[in-house]
Fold Aspartate aminotransferase family protein.
Amino acid sequence: MSNRLNSTPNDLRAFWMPFTANRQFKKAPRLFVGAKDMYYTTHDGRQVLDGTAGLWCVNAGHCRPQITEAIREQAGELDYAPAFQLGHPKAFELANRLVDIAPDGMSHVFYTNSGSESVDTALKIALAYQRVKGEGTRTRLIGRERGYHGINFGGMSVGGIVGNRKMFGTLLTGVDHIRHTHQPDKNAFTKGQPEYGADLADDLERLVNLHDASTIAAVIVEPVAGSTGVLIPPKGYLQRLREICDKYGILLIFDEVITGFGRLGTPFATQYFDVKPDIITTAKGLTNGVIPMGAVFVTSEIHDAFMTGPEHLIEFAHGYTYSGNPIASAAGIGTLNTYRDEGLLTRASELAPYWEEQLHSLRDCPNVIDIRNIGLIGAIELAPIAGEPTKRAFNAFLKAYEDGLLIRTTGDIIALSPPLIITKEQIDELFGKLRKVLLNNI
Ligand SMILES: Cc1ncc(COP(=O)(O)O)c(C=O)c1O
């Protein structure tokens, strides 16, 4: 056994693990000690096919040389530079590279360290923008039921997953929600975008009638909702939201933390759906998950609105110690180089038909009540075990892990989002393993 495999810690008590069933985990730990391309290595020396790109972030696959090298070099050259009133070249270089691949009109980038911070930054930009424009009464933020926008107070407030909200008091005030778009009675087993549900965007107009447009700053949605269990926008839905926002002067924020960087076969979902938001939040795939980093994209109209007043004054009182950190910036550049050299930002569009066919072939497995897909995203919704919601999917997760496949579950839904380097043979391996799991009386 190599040293690496011997490095298993023998006391797991001190680490309170995030979004984890801690007691269950610590009784039967699942530890990764290595990773390369599409596979993890476990502490007991097994290979596990990564069906989820880590947590929707390792889009270029694991331990990619250009990223590793960029980090190594940067760490030896300039480790940290203060983020406020000072800079370093790579943060600017990365911002320009990001704007180059961003949807038309997105001209400026504000750095954060995570998806949650990108969301809270976007909400603050929206509120401050309305104010600098002279529309300071627009303080209300609108989210969507079942939305996931991270776990900070802003994102939690506009988010719509009850389990993530109910423990934390009153959250932000002045927030409302439109309904989610999940309609399995009408859309179950749809391949790609569902036919039914564009009219659910009209909920925004209902909220305008309730609160008045003059009180609403912005609406935030995930173009494809991921963490709630993969909800694909019905045909015409996002277009309709854009129309209503335009009609009432409401900013549209797309949370692209999981759809950014090639997940749908275009650099951003915005380009896939051909709907232009005013602000885009990103993280995850920006650095291939390797170093924490997020970025919020805005239009020049929004950016320029802040660039007034005396030049020695800070225009926007917001930022993080690690905004645009040198090593994160280097990782971002290494990641974009990898995406460019390997065509990864569009690769999902080539694989999507095969992915869709193989995913939907699981329709005949026991307890499968819906299958959904778009780009290189898939979801399999299972009938809950009576009286024990979430357990069937969790059982599937445990069994898959044992059988050498990493899947992700939320509620009784299995979500799949492999690295964009996956081959057709690995897609076969993934669904072959998953079929065995689903047939295993979970
Ligand atoms: C759409 C969306 N927004 C925000 C986040 C939060 O990102 P982070 O966990 O990096 O804070 C996530 C994480 O999954 C996400 O899917």
The pocket of pyridoxal-5'-phosphate is lined by residues 114-116, 119, 148-150, 222, 226-227, 255, 257-258, 283 (CB under 6 Å). Residues 67-342 form a domain with the Aspartate Aminotransferase; domain 2 fold (CATH 3.40.640.10).
